[in-house]
Amino acid sequence: MAAQVVVVGSCMTDLVSLTTRLPRAGETVLGHKFFIGFGGKGANQCVQSARLGANTSLICKVGKDSFGNDYVENLKKNGISTAFVDQTTDAATGTASIIVNSEGQNVIVIVPGANLLLNSEDLKRASDVICKAKVLVCQLEITPAVSLEALKMARASGVKTLFNPAPALADLDPQFYIYSDIFCCNETEAEILTGIPVGNLEDAEKVGRMLLERGCKLVIVTLGAEGCMMISVEEPIPKHVPAGKVRAVDTTGAGDSFVGALAFYLAYYPKLSMEEMIRKSNCIASVSVQASGTQSSYPYRKDLPQDLF
Ligand SMILES: Nc1ncnc2c1ncn2[C@@H]1O[C@H](COP(=O)(O)OP(=O)(O)OP(=O)(O)O)[C@@H](O)[C@H]1O
């Protein structure tokens, strides 16, 4: 069966070292724990969608190396189609080397590697899958022009486009607004895109309006524990959709859980109102913040209340 949710995006291997304190330049410190995690916004969003039961395909590039091999296995374990996961010898799998001290502060070095080699040819090879999807999801951890091309291909076939402008670019190509049916960003990204800091719901309404005016059909600004602000061409009065109160232990990757969940609802429950889809996606992302890690915190359908489906 054709994939209903298709993600064009990144895979990153997280290399995490826990230390008492962060090393100074030139210094070596002893860590007490090391682990490898699967990350990258594209893969994260695809994994969350797949765990809710979506038929998914990820279009991405990893290295022909051990991290790349492990990543492909991870995607398969999550039931994601890897038909368009390309393994290249021209660059290493993307990595995020992360050092975290005992106060939770971190330093991070990201090397996008193979992610930046995903190109037009890869999209053309996958065009059948993109054009038969219900929803196409893109972010900005690959070459932005490739994300934009994927959005255009999807739009030309009537596929719903969900764009997450992360990490944000101050000089985002204005065409991204035009080709995004849904433009979903967090507070920081909204600030970079509009120049307006988002400190409260009023600010979120303001940035939502500004982004909508740039040409997308619907804007969602995620607001952490506050849930989301939504505004659409159909209902141009911003609406706050609160998240439930939970005890958060690690909010890393909550935004990707939200986007993956929203893609699932758009593809499988198109008759739900947007507000209801956002409310349900808030519920799923708020489950993810109650466990540590990124993909490791994303819930499976079987473990969620059945009224979410
Ligand atoms: N403390 C929290 N309590 C309940 N829900 C939360 C909390 N933090 C995040 N969420 C849920 O996750 C969604 C996304 O959160 P947020 O706006 O922090 O994304 P983000 O900044 O992109 O996250 P990240 O960059 O860590 O992936 C929120 O809209 C909400 O549904």
UniProtKB/TrEMBL annotation:
Enzyme class: transferase
Residue numbers binding ATP: 186, 222-227, 255-256, 282
Residue ranges of domain Carbohydrate kinase PfkB in the record: 3-299
Catalytic activity: D-ribose + ATP = D-ribose 5-phosphate + ADP + H(+)
Keywords in alphabetical order: ATP-binding, Carbohydrate metabolism, Cytoplasm, Kinase, Magnesium, Metal-binding, Nucleotide-binding, Nucleus, Potassium, Transferase
Organism, scientific name: Pipra filicauda
GO biological process: D-ribose catabolic process; generation of precursor metabolites and energy; glucose 6-phosphate metabolic process; nicotinamide nucleotide metabolic process; purine nucleotide metabolic process
The protein's name: Ribokinase
MF-aspect GO terms: ATP binding; metal ion binding; ribokinase activity
EC number in record: 2.7.1.15
Binding-site positions, substrate: 12-14, 40-44, 141, 256
Catalytic site positions: 256 (proton acceptor)
UniProt xrefs under PROSITE patterns: PFKB_KINASES_2
Lineage: Eukaryota, Metazoa, Chordata, Craniata, Vertebrata
GO cellular component: cytosol; nucleus
Pathway(s) it belongs to: Carbohydrate metabolism; D-ribose degradation; D-ribose 5-phosphate from beta-D-ribopyranose: step 2/2
Subcellular location(s) per record: Cytoplasm; Nucleus
Entry function: Catalyzes the phosphorylation of ribose at O-5 in a reaction requiring ATP and magnesium. The resulting D-ribose-5-phosphate can then be used either for sythesis of nucleotides, histidine, and tryptophan, or as a component of the pentose phosphate pathway.
Family, similarity comment: Belongs to the carbohydrate kinase PfkB family. Ribokinase subfamily. Belongs to the carbohydrate kinase pfkB family.
Cofactor: Mg(2+)
Self-association and partners: Homodimer.
